[in-house]
Amino acid sequence: MKCGICKHGDTKDGKTTVSFDRNGMTLVVKDVPARICTNCGEDYVNEPITHEILTLAERMIKSGAQVAVRRYVPGSVIPC
To answer: What domain count does the chain have?
Structure first.
């Protein structure tokens, strides 16, 4: 697919780091599968993976964590 940001590069499979800040909690998830633009580096994470990361973030907020760093493991977050 063409990059929606730069409109020049194509995207290819790769991995990225996703950072999430909310309600005083910072979550960093490493090695997240994504499509990455070969021109500008913009990354695109698909909807199911995004849902897993948001579910993890909600759990971290509820636990009272202020900072969490995780490595992405497919299917490791079971929705509440």
So the answer is: 1
